[in-house]
């Protein structure tokens, strides 16, 4: 899954960002802001999106069965 940030400049630089292991929605927002501020097209790819709940689940010890 990726996001495209459109820019008005046809000669704008294009940056590809791929994150292995997942990216948070806040990190995607930060990349979008950087692209907007610098006039770049940013394509974001990742293996998964990480929410607050999934982050806590990854950090907690495994449940015993």
Q: Can you describe what's shown?
A:
Keywords: Membrane, Transmembrane, Transmembrane helix. This is Vacuolar protein sorting-associated protein 33B. InterPro entries: Sec1-like (IPR001619), Sec1-like_dom2 (IPR027482), Sec1-like_sf (IPR036045). By secondary structure, the protein is an alpha/beta fold. The chain has helices at residues 25-38, 52-59, and strands spanning 2-4, 14-19, 23-24, 41-46, 49-50. The strands form two sheets. Strands 1-4-2 form a three-stranded mixed β-sheet, covered by helices on one side. The chain has a two-stranded parallel sheet with strand order 3-5. The protein is elongated. The mean pLDDT is 86.
Quickly count the helices. Answer: 2
- Distance, first to last CA: 34 Å
Order of SSEs: EEEHEEH
Query: Which percent range fits the helix content?
Result: 25-40%
The proportion of strand residues reads 25-35%
Q: Major sheet: size, sense and barrel closure?
A: 3 strands, mixed
Q: Name the assembly state.
A: single chain
Form type: elongated
| Unreliable residue stretches | none
Average predicted confidence as pLDDT: 86
Count of strand segments: 5
Strand order of the largest sheet: 1-4-2
Q: Helix/strand/pairing class, anyone?
A: alpha/beta
Rounded radius of gyration (Å): 15 Å
Core attributes:
single chain, 65 residues, alpha/beta, 3-stranded mixed β-sheet, 2 helices, elongated
Task: Report a brief summary of the structure.
This protein is 34% helix and 29% strand. The chain is α/β, with parallel strands linked by helices and 65 residues long. 8% of the residues are buried.
């Amino acid at each position: 899954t990726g996001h495209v940030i459109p820019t008005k400049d046809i000669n704008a630089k294009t940056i590809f960002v791929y994150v292995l292991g997942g990216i948070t929605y806040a990190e995607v927002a930060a990349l979008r802001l950087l692209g907007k501020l610098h006039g770049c097209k940013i394509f974001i790819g990742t293996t998964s999106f990480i929410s607050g709940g999934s982050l806590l689940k990854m950090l907690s010890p495994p449940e015993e069965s």
